[in-house]
Amino acid sequence: MRHWCVRSVSPAETRELGRLLGTLFAKPATVLLLGDLGAGKTCFVQGVAAGLEVPATDPVTSPTYALMNQYRGRIPLYHFDLYRLAQGEEVDDLDLEGYLAGEGIAVVEWAERLSSRERQGFEIEFVHAGDDERTLSIEARGAAAEAVLERLCHCWRERGAR
Ligand code: ADP
Ligand code: MG
Prior knowledge:
Blueprint: E1 3-8, H1 11-24, E2 29-34, H2 41-51, E3 68-71, E4 77-81, H3 96-100, E5 105-109, E6 121-128, E7 134-141, H4 143-161
Parallel strand pairs: 2-5, 2-6, 4-5
Antiparallel strand pairs: 1-7, 3-4, 6-7
Adenosine-5'-diphosphate (ADP) is lined by residues 8-11, 13-14, 35, 37-43, 109, 132, 134.
Protein backbone atom coordinates (compact mmCIF):
# COMPACT_ATOMS: atom_id res chain seq x y z
CA MET A 1 0.00 0.00 0.00
CA ARG A 2 1.51 3.31 -1.09
CA HIS A 3 -0.99 5.86 0.05
CA TRP A 4 -3.46 6.11 2.87
CA CYS A 5 -5.49 9.12 3.89
CA VAL A 6 -6.95 8.96 7.36
CA ARG A 7 -8.99 11.39 9.41
CA SER A 8 -8.39 12.05 13.09
CA VAL A 9 -11.06 13.73 15.20
CA SER A 10 -9.06 14.23 18.40
CA PRO A 11 -5.51 14.49 19.76
CA ALA A 12 -6.07 11.09 21.39
CA GLU A 13 -6.84 9.59 18.00
CA THR A 14 -3.73 11.11 16.41
CA ARG A 15 -1.65 9.77 19.30
CA GLU A 16 -3.22 6.33 18.85
CA LEU A 17 -2.35 6.32 15.15
CA GLY A 18 1.24 7.16 16.03
CA ARG A 19 1.28 4.49 18.71
CA LEU A 20 0.06 1.83 16.29
CA LEU A 21 2.73 2.82 13.79
CA GLY A 22 5.34 2.64 16.56
CA THR A 23 4.29 -0.90 17.49
CA LEU A 24 4.67 -1.99 13.85
CA PHE A 25 8.31 -0.93 13.48
CA ALA A 26 10.73 -3.83 13.57
CA LYS A 27 13.58 -2.24 11.63
CA PRO A 28 15.13 1.23 11.28
CA ALA A 29 12.84 3.63 9.46
CA THR A 30 12.39 7.26 8.55
CA VAL A 31 9.17 9.20 9.08
CA LEU A 32 8.98 12.69 7.58
CA LEU A 33 6.22 14.91 8.97
CA LEU A 34 4.85 17.93 7.15
CA GLY A 35 2.19 20.45 8.06
CA ASP A 36 1.56 23.74 9.82
CA LEU A 37 2.14 24.68 13.43
CA GLY A 38 -0.50 22.97 15.56
CA ALA A 39 -1.30 20.39 12.92
CA GLY A 40 -0.57 17.54 15.33
CA LYS A 41 2.95 16.42 14.42
CA THR A 42 4.34 16.36 17.96
CA CYS A 43 1.15 14.70 19.18
CA PHE A 44 1.73 11.94 16.63
CA VAL A 45 5.38 11.53 17.68
CA GLN A 46 4.25 11.08 21.30
CA GLY A 47 2.22 8.13 20.07
CA VAL A 48 5.14 6.71 18.09
CA ALA A 49 7.28 6.90 21.25
CA ALA A 50 4.63 5.00 23.20
CA GLY A 51 4.51 2.35 20.47
CA LEU A 52 8.29 2.02 20.66
CA GLU A 53 8.00 1.55 24.42
CA VAL A 54 9.77 4.75 25.37
CA PRO A 55 9.09 5.03 29.14
CA ALA A 56 6.38 7.56 30.08
CA THR A 57 8.94 9.07 32.49
CA ASP A 58 10.69 10.42 29.37
CA PRO A 59 7.95 12.53 27.76
CA VAL A 60 8.27 13.64 24.14
CA THR A 61 8.34 17.41 23.70
CA SER A 62 9.26 19.54 20.72
CA PRO A 63 13.04 19.68 20.34
CA THR A 64 12.83 23.20 18.95
CA TYR A 65 16.08 24.34 20.52
CA ALA A 66 18.02 21.10 20.47
CA LEU A 67 16.89 20.24 16.89
CA MET A 68 16.99 16.59 17.90
CA ASN A 69 15.97 14.63 20.99
CA GLN A 70 16.85 11.01 21.43
CA TYR A 71 14.69 8.51 23.31
CA ARG A 72 15.43 4.98 24.41
CA GLY A 73 12.75 2.57 23.31
CA ARG A 74 12.61 -0.95 21.93
CA ILE A 75 14.39 0.73 18.99
CA PRO A 76 16.05 4.17 19.51
CA LEU A 77 13.86 7.11 18.54
CA TYR A 78 15.46 10.25 17.05
CA HIS A 79 13.01 13.12 17.08
CA PHE A 80 14.00 16.07 14.87
CA ASP A 81 12.24 19.41 14.59
CA LEU A 82 13.57 21.59 11.78
CA TYR A 83 11.21 24.52 12.44
CA ARG A 84 14.05 26.91 13.17
CA LEU A 85 15.95 26.12 10.01
CA ALA A 86 15.79 28.15 6.86
CA GLN A 87 15.51 26.00 3.77
CA GLY A 88 18.78 24.25 3.00
CA GLU A 89 20.59 26.02 5.83
CA GLU A 90 22.31 24.20 8.69
CA VAL A 91 20.66 20.91 7.75
CA ASP A 92 24.00 19.69 6.47
CA ASP A 93 25.57 20.21 9.90
CA LEU A 94 23.08 17.97 11.64
CA ASP A 95 24.31 14.70 10.18
CA LEU A 96 20.67 14.04 9.55
CA GLU A 97 21.65 11.56 6.85
CA GLY A 98 23.67 9.60 9.39
CA TYR A 99 20.67 9.29 11.68
CA LEU A 100 18.28 8.63 8.85
CA ALA A 101 20.38 5.76 7.62
CA GLY A 102 21.07 4.55 11.15
CA GLU A 103 19.83 2.07 13.67
CA GLY A 104 16.77 3.81 14.90
CA ILE A 105 13.49 5.37 13.97
CA ALA A 106 14.11 8.91 12.75
CA VAL A 107 11.05 11.15 12.89
CA VAL A 108 11.41 14.62 11.38
CA GLU A 109 8.99 17.48 12.05
CA TRP A 110 9.03 20.29 9.49
CA ALA A 111 10.49 17.98 6.86
CA GLU A 112 9.55 20.72 4.36
CA ARG A 113 12.92 22.18 5.35
CA LEU A 114 14.85 19.27 3.88
CA SER A 115 16.28 19.93 0.45
CA SER A 116 15.67 16.36 -0.62
CA ARG A 117 12.80 14.18 0.53
CA GLU A 118 13.05 11.42 -2.02
CA ARG A 119 14.00 8.90 0.60
CA GLN A 120 12.54 5.52 1.52
CA GLY A 121 10.16 5.37 4.41
CA PHE A 122 7.12 7.42 5.32
CA GLU A 123 6.01 10.90 4.53
CA ILE A 124 2.95 12.14 6.40
CA GLU A 125 1.24 15.41 5.70
CA PHE A 126 -1.01 16.83 8.43
CA VAL A 127 -3.79 19.17 7.42
CA HIS A 128 -6.18 21.12 9.66
CA ALA A 129 -9.71 20.09 8.75
CA GLY A 130 -11.62 21.77 11.60
CA ASP A 131 -11.20 22.48 15.33
CA ASP A 132 -10.19 18.98 16.36
CA GLU A 133 -10.11 17.41 12.95
CA ARG A 134 -6.98 16.62 11.02
CA THR A 135 -6.36 14.64 7.89
CA LEU A 136 -3.17 12.64 7.67
CA SER A 137 -2.07 11.81 4.19
CA ILE A 138 0.43 9.00 4.52
CA GLU A 139 2.78 7.93 1.76
CA ALA A 140 4.96 4.83 2.00
CA ARG A 141 8.11 4.59 -0.12
CA GLY A 142 9.79 1.24 -0.59
CA ALA A 143 8.60 -2.31 0.04
CA ALA A 144 9.25 -2.31 3.80
CA ALA A 145 7.30 0.90 4.37
CA GLU A 146 4.48 -0.25 2.12
CA ALA A 147 4.10 -3.44 4.15
CA VAL A 148 4.00 -1.48 7.40
CA LEU A 149 1.40 0.92 5.98
CA GLU A 150 -0.76 -2.01 4.94
CA ARG A 151 -0.70 -3.31 8.50
CA LEU A 152 -1.33 0.13 9.98
CA CYS A 153 -4.40 0.58 7.83
CA HIS A 154 -5.60 -2.91 8.75
CA CYS A 155 -5.07 -2.34 12.51
CA TRP A 156 -6.89 0.99 12.30
CA ARG A 157 -9.91 -0.59 10.61
CA GLU A 158 -9.97 -3.44 13.13
CA ARG A 159 -9.97 -0.93 15.90
CA GLY A 160 -12.86 0.94 14.31
CA ALA A 161 -14.80 -2.31 14.06
CA ARG A 162 -14.53 -3.06 17.80
P1 ADP B 1 2.65 20.48 15.74
O1 ADP B 1 3.74 19.63 16.33
O2 ADP B 1 2.21 20.01 14.38
O3 ADP B 1 2.97 21.93 15.75
P2 ADP B 1 1.22 19.76 18.14
O4 ADP B 1 1.07 18.29 18.14
O5 ADP B 1 2.27 20.35 19.01
O6 ADP B 1 1.34 20.28 16.64
O7 ADP B 1 -0.14 20.44 18.57
C1 ADP B 1 -1.37 20.08 18.03
C2 ADP B 1 -2.43 20.87 18.78
O8 ADP B 1 -3.69 20.67 18.19
C3 ADP B 1 -2.54 20.42 20.23
O9 ADP B 1 -2.85 21.52 21.03
C4 ADP B 1 -3.70 19.44 20.17
O10 ADP B 1 -4.40 19.35 21.40
C5 ADP B 1 -4.58 20.08 19.12
N1 ADP B 1 -5.42 19.11 18.38
C6 ADP B 1 -6.75 19.23 18.20
N2 ADP B 1 -7.23 18.22 17.47
C7 ADP B 1 -6.18 17.44 17.16
C8 ADP B 1 -6.05 16.22 16.43
N3 ADP B 1 -7.09 15.62 15.83
N4 ADP B 1 -4.82 15.71 16.31
C9 ADP B 1 -3.76 16.31 16.89
N5 ADP B 1 -3.81 17.44 17.60
C10 ADP B 1 -5.01 18.01 17.74
MG1 MG C 1 5.71 20.09 16.81
